[in-house]
Amino acid sequence: MAKIFNVTGACIPKKHYMADMAGRVEQIRKMVDAGAYFMINRARQYGKTTTLAALAKGLSGDYLVIWLDFQSLSSASFQNENSFSVAFAELFLQEMERQHARLMDGMEMCMEKMQDMIDDGDLRLNLMTLFRYLRDACECSVKPVVLMIDEVDSASNNQVFLDFLAQLRNYYLQRDTKGIITFQSVILAGVYDIKNLKRKIREDVDHKTNSPWNIAADFDVDMSLSLDGIRGMLTEYEKDYQTGMDILEMAELLYDYTCGYPYLVSRLCKLMDEKIGGETKESKKRAWTKDGFLEAVRMLLMENNTLFESLIGKLNDYPELEKMLKELLFFGKPVTYNPTNEIISLAVMFGFVKNEEGKVIPANRIFDTLLYNHFLSMDELKSYEMYKVSLQDKNMFIQDGHLDMRKILEKFVLHFHDLYGNRNEVFLEEEGRRFFLLYLRPIINGIGNYYVEARTRSLGRTDIIVDYRGEQFVIETKIWRGNEYNSRGERQLTDYLEDYSLQTGYLLSFNFNKKKQIGVREIEINGKRLIEAVV
Hints:
Elements: H1 22-33, E1 37-41, H2 48-59, E2 64-69, H3 81-98, H4 107-119, H5 127-140, E3 145-150, H6 159-177, E4 185-190, H7 227-241, H8 247-258, H9 262-276, H10 281-287, H11 290-301, H12 306-317, H13 319-330, H14 342-350, E5 353-356, E6 359-362, H15 365-382, H16 384-393, E7 398-399, E8 402-403, H17 405-420, H18 425-444, E9 449-452, E10 461-468, E11 471-479, H19 483-499, E12 504-510, E13 519-525, E14 528-534
Parallel strand pairs: 1-4, 2-3, 3-4, 11-12, 12-14
Antiparallel strand pairs: 5-6, 7-8, 9-10, 10-11, 13-14
């Protein structure tokens, strides 16, 4: 049976095209060998379960790996200590059976005692009793026991679970001080970082910070897919289908747009393979080209998948997060990375942004464009005039399947001047770029893609890259700050066009000068053709 690209659940090497996990597993194994307790907290669909599966297999020769999933526990399991202890013990025993632990000397009696207490419905089965049985199991095992718990998010705000973590911490500390045999390593996996939970000490309003997981080691393993990892995955696919793709070019495109976010890489590959590629050899060849890739990007951004739903849902849950992201995207407001800032930490944890040399930047182009599309769709109602004229104009900009970017700028200048020309400078500086994207989006929506180049976002200018039916357009938007500043921007744009192997570029300047001349002109610099628009 042929392999497929997988975007649901753990990836299995025999069934799915996937990057080599050996290096990642080896890094984590060193932490396990050292007896570390740690948390793998990454954004949704970032390969946590796939990593645990590969790790469990890699450790199985030397360790008894007990891999639990808290998704299988109901909310009733967390009502009190007894219900949680019973549910946890049942999960633990099921996993012991799967691992054939009964075959180990002394383990069968230990398991039977735990099962008897569950079967008797003994209300005395609380956390202390549970951990006594867990300690006995660790002592009876001929291999050191590694406990892995996936999807701990479902319990992270629950008092019983916090007490469970406190017991884990207590036994961890007693390994060295009292020689107690307990878990070799404990690995928790989920989106939220529970290392610094605020634990409720009393039932009234008094709260104190008392992390029940402050014994956790830092987990610094890079779980994104590297360029080499993506290339290896594509090489395996190419051996099966001989599409003739340029593997390095395709791997670079995937990495450039996703920064190695595992779900995004696999989803784009799946779209090219199954939706664009189809069944014939010729269609497969067309799919694995730059044009096919850009079509996959367009299709992905038109989806309402579970990852995108989760990301947009977080904006509703955290208004301050939404505000920060808007300022970062539309206004180029520089945000200094500070791990103690709660909003920045949330943005990193959910996968929206990343830290690059002390600055907060969008995590990848896909999420960047997803957020722009979301915010602009909300603005379409607030700024209906600009959206309405864009819909009226959109058909005039396509000639024989090609996008006429000069004409788009000409019409935008006229509409913007008519609708907003009497607004003040603050309005223009904060809203001008957003209004151009609001005008552009309905014109290319459904056929073309766009993204904002992160490296120019906070330099007083913004470069918008538009892909339309295989053609690329670079539009620099900036605030007019005099002729010298404008000339420097022109030279910067020509350099940027060289990077993209393009001959024509576009500048859109928002000018506050009352004596300004609005309109569009064309100049040539260093052999490059520049179309400049001033509003």
